[in-house]
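User: I'm new to structure prediction. If I give you an amino acid sequence, what do you actually give back? Let's try with this one:
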Amino acid sequence: MRQFLKRKLVLFNEQGLRSLRAVDIFDELMRFLHHFIAFVGADIFVEHFRWTFQTYVSFFSLVLFAVNLIYTVTVHWGEWYAVMDTLSISGIGFQGMIKMWSGLSNVEFFRKKRADLRSMHARNGRHPENNYVLLKNVLVILYIFRFFSVSYSVAGLFLFVIPGYMLMVRNEEVLLFALEIPTVDPLTHTGYVVTMGYQVFMVFLAIAGILAADMGIMIIVLHIVGIVDVFRNTMIELDQLLEDPDCEDDEIHEKVTEICMMHKEIIGYEEELNEHYFFTVFVQVITSVTCLSMTLFVIFMKGDWTRVMFLFATFFQLLEFCALGTSLTLKNDHIVDAIYNTKWYLLCPSDQKKLQFMLHRSQNAVEMTIGGLALLNMETFVEIIKTIYSYFMMLRSFIE
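Assistant: Good question. You get back a string of structure tokens that encode the predicted 3D arrangement of the chain. For your 400 residues, that looks like this:
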């Protein structure tokens, strides 16, 4: 088993890991992402990005989704279980709209981030320890990407199980979810075929779109882990210089200056993350909570277990974003520890002041928030789940 894991997961094989270059794995990661963002026409990482046929298809699909959602709610108004069933999938559409708008309106930002990250990998490839920590970081992101690709695909395919069973075994025509098209009657065979075809297309588009958007965000955010690990390696190098009796003061001063510049870049990176994902994270959390609450209600009230995989997919999507925020918080703590534990007392007074300023700035670091209302971390995730459960149990008691 161990040999199998070493072959499949390079992270388990340190010798094999050190023989690789982080920049090569980064390129592989971006190629993997390209398949999904190209499918939805949002390959914003390429030079001279322009709207393609796929971009227009994705855009008008989102517009049509909103129209069909409003139409379905209007038609079934008063049938509250049916309305809740339809609204339970609304969050996916709104997420898609916001993420597509965010990506297409910030093309230069994402293209620059890709170029900067690749340049960082290439530059540190000549430094064995830096290459090693960056390689582990990018491999973890790649494995997470593959895991979510499989998970979302399985969740999407699971939607077809019940309709397929009902059609083949009971000869009943059941839709994937409660979303209808204006002027098309799903109760007729022709209307069912048209509506089902539309829903199948939307499922594939949603899977590709969610993976493209979420993993694009994850790649940029999770790189802070590798960047901070490089910073910690540089702090270790500073300690080694301070312990070396033959080391010149100018060399130590130069290393401190390098560390200060790295710290400034990390703070700027974190500020950019919060600035560019401020509204996206807010919409993501709000829509995920809405989807979770309504889907849980529909499953309980209607006994519709076809929604279970959708419930789990929404749950893990919320967990994913809160975990991203937590990773940022943890790496900020690592920066503080690295500065505090260095042999700063061996530095000259001017360099000590620089580290003191860095320590103060790190103790008040930028963190990702949910629209400025709460921190994006696992503690918030637990509180959200507790709140959803409490309201659900209260609603259940009221109905019973």
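You can read the tokens as a compact description of the fold. Here is one thing that stands out. Residues 189-243 form the longest helix (55 residues).
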